[in-house]
Amino acid sequence: RNRHLVSGYAIDSLSQEEEQEKEVAGSGGGGTWEVVVVGGRKKQRRRKSEKKVVVEVDHGDELEGGGGDVDGDGGYERQREHPFIVTEPGEAARGKKNGLDYLFHLYEQCRELLIQVQNIAKERGEKCPTKVTNQVFRYAKKVGASYINKPKMRHYVHCYALQCLDEDTSNALRRSFKERGENVGAWRQACYKPLVAIAARQGWDIDAIFNAHPRLAIWYVPTKLRQLCHAERNGATAVPAVSSSVSAKTDHVTF
Amino acid sequence: RNRHLVSGYAIDSLSQEEEQEKEVAGSGGGGTWEVVVVGGRKKQRRRKSEKKVVVEVDHGDELEGGGGDVDGDGGYERQREHPFIVTEPGEAARGKKNGLDYLFHLYEQCRELLIQVQNIAKERGEKCPTKVTNQVFRYAKKVGASYINKPKMRHYVHCYALQCLDEDTSNALRRSFKERGENVGAWRQACYKPLVAIAARQGWDIDAIFNAHPRLAIWYVPTKLRQLCHAERNGATAVPAVSSSVSAKTDHVTF
DNA sequence: AGAAGGACCAGTGGTCCGTA
DNA sequence: AGAAGGACCAGTGGTCCGTA
């Protein structure tokens, strides 16, 4: 029953994704989430009213009692994913939360979705994406992985990068931030610094570093990470290390 | 005086580009062409009226008598590049025409422009294009190479690809089409077939073929060439070799 | 306050079609 | 008729900000 839609991926403590897909993954791919999304999807930017109607129609039977839906609010809105909390490696999140193993698992899923998109493109003789593009996110929705979306994945790319490039440091950071009771945002911010240090050791070419790693190469280098590396390479003084704003438009001469 | 704006490139029979830049290339990069383009450029899509006004203002002194401008029409429109004709390797085009050596030279110039754009991007710590993108065409305009434009370059990419991948075949094709008095369009069409043959020999992966060649790797594989390779790999029968339409939207399932 | 993600927007790849 | 290229357009990368 606990099969994932993308492929049988063995991982523990995935929580929300699994809850929601119980009794859905098996049903021929026509689960509630997928219906919602596919129904609203064709070409037009979806208007708000549409969305709600669709959700009301096919809600309240399959997701009910599944473990975490229809919060206390008595409403019928589509559920968001539970927020992430800082967990140690291997630790399951408690309550209506998702852990960081689950976060990283989503990046692996995206990789598998990309591979599928690439295979389809090759079969058809179409141009073949080398990165996780909009097309891949659209495909994710289509196959029912509606908990994957672009803003979320882009938001945490550098955290996944640290996990790929230096798992020990990544694990240590998680433990330390968990212990200190820091929130996800603080942990996320803290992931920049060790990455910049890695870049420093390797000649500052963050693109080359991403591209040299097979699982990381499919992700665009986040703007802020690129900017931090650039700033640090030049006067490391002027930059308050991982300040929250290398930020606003380092005034930009365009052709 | 015959310096090019991009770099001193040694090539013969360039005709129009050289004519037009005589007395302009030396003037600090502020020649007529550049003024026209830079003037109309900032952000807004240029409206027609604007364009004409700008041209009228700074026309009629530098280009006049330069060798091929202000055709017989007595008007003040910006000149187009002379059309290409099929020339043999090394042959200069006569009259108000440009030869194929000049065409291929434009691809080399784009490569140099890309390298400049890449260097600037690296200096600034910005993302660095690996292909000839819109940014490069914009840069070409900015540095005064206004005879380079996207539709033209994309139109003939596969001709340049043949020149890169099999110069002998490319040369033979030029001679044969010149001899038979064929026009440029016919020559251009004929360039597909030997490319498909090359792809066939190398396992049909036209993207890999482009990427393996240092000068070709910076160009996007043209849609039609990709389609022809795909079609030929499958039932070679159903496709009238280089038909003018593999073409219209090989009905396309999108995610 | 902290976080998830729909939706927007500037600039892209691609090429049509009004122009000469 | 043959050809050059301005200009358009669907879908992209990037991320803000209204939402919960």
Write a concise synopsis of the structure shown.
Chains A, B: Probable transcription factor. 2 copies of one chain form a homodimer. Chain A is mostly helical and about 260 residues long.
Please give a handful of descriptors for the protein shown:
255 residues, 12 helices, mainly alpha, nucleus (chains A, B), DNA-binding, transcription regulation (chains A, B), Floricaula/leafy-like transcription factor (chains A, B), homodimer
Notes on the protein architecture:
Two copies of one chain form a homodimer. Chain A is mainly α and about 260 residues long. Chain A is built from twelve helices and no strands. Helix content of chain A is about 50%, strand content about 0%. Chain A is globular, with a radius of gyration of 20 Å. The model of chain A is unreliable at about 1-15, about 20-75 and about 240-250 (pLDDT under 50). Chains A and B meet through helix 5 and helix 12 of A and helix 5 and helix 12 of B. Chain B binds a DNA duplex (20 and 20 nucleotides) through helix 6.
